Amino acid sequence: MSLHRRSFLRSILAAGTVISLPINLPASFKKSLKFGLIADVHKDIMHDSDERLQDFVAAAGNRKLDFIMQLGDFCIPAEKNQGFMDIWNSYPGERHHVLGNHDNDGGYSYEDTLAFWKMPSKYYSFDRGGIHIAILDGNDPNPGEWEGYHRYIASGQQEWLRKDLASTDLPTLIFSHQTLEDPSGGVANAAEIRTILEEANLESGRSKIIACLCGHEHTDYHTKINGIYYIQINSASYRWVGGDHEVIRYSMEIDKKYPYIKKTIPYKDPLYTFIEIKPSGKLSMTSKISSFVGPGPGEMKLVELENSPIVARISARKLTP
């Protein structure tokens, strides 16, 4: 894209124009794309993470899927977690990873994690079933002074994303750990990344970007911004509530071995979803409904935000272009 053309598109976006473009799926896209998603299993926090992952892998094995993907905060690259990885790798089909902000905890590097997971790169793309898939890394260092975990997509990755989107005519799904919708808890420069995606749509003259899917927030929510869906996939395991709301929810033995669980509201059953993109462009998600272990947010009088409900579910969704 020329600098003049890019400046023109950015002026349109800056003016707040609502984008509504057709998807126009290619004639080659005649069969649905189907895949499974699981997010934020947190092997290093949950005592029953192996069982939760096994439940997902077994459910995925009963479906004819193009691939499965985990959306980050999966496990650190420690030898003790090899059995957990073996469960993941037991799925006989195609498997993909997204890096989460906790996947290098304990002094590990992301390079260690890439090797342990056998992930090809921090960010990459591929085509499957007539759809282009781009996996982003939201863990680049934030510029300037920054406290807490990094959540940023730096200029080098931004330029890669521009070139990657320009190189394909296929409808595209974007995956990241942190949301691209809300910079307060997601990618700090989310607006910059959304501009790249919206420019790609305008340049192509159609809604090339179907949806952006993420984990991280441990909630069940979606919205649509300038013609692009942003979908947050709930954690497989729990909602974090912090030290001010500690409740021992399992045995004292489990609490001693896994001391962070009491800072969460665990879900009784593992949450995950299966998604289908139909040739019509419609995106549908399966539901998974559980309950809380111990007191829930109402009993604990926790304040819930509209865009971040504390719920033990992943909702069924049918999103049209």
Notes on the structure:
The protein is α/β, with parallel strands linked by helices and 321 residues long. The chain has one domain (32-319): 4-Layer Sandwich (Purple Acid Phosphatase, chain A, domain 2). Helices cover 23% and strands 20% of the residues. The chain has 7 helices and 16 strands. The chain has helices at 3-14, 49-61, 82-89, 110-117, 155-166, 190-204, 252-257; strands at residues 33-38, 67-70, 95-97, 124-128, 131-135, 172-175, 209-214, 221-225, 228-232, 238-240, 264-266, 273-277, 283-285, 288-289, 313-314, 317-319. The strands form 4 sheets. It has a 6-stranded mixed beta sheet, with helices on one face. The protein has a 6-stranded mixed beta sheet with strand order 4-5-6-7-9-8, with helices on one face. Helix 2 packs parallel to helix 3 and helix 5 runs parallel beside helix 6 (190-204). The relative contact order is 0.16. Residues 1-22 have low confidence and may be disordered.
Compact summary:
This protein has 321 residues and is of the alpha/beta class. The chain is built from seven helices and 16 strands.
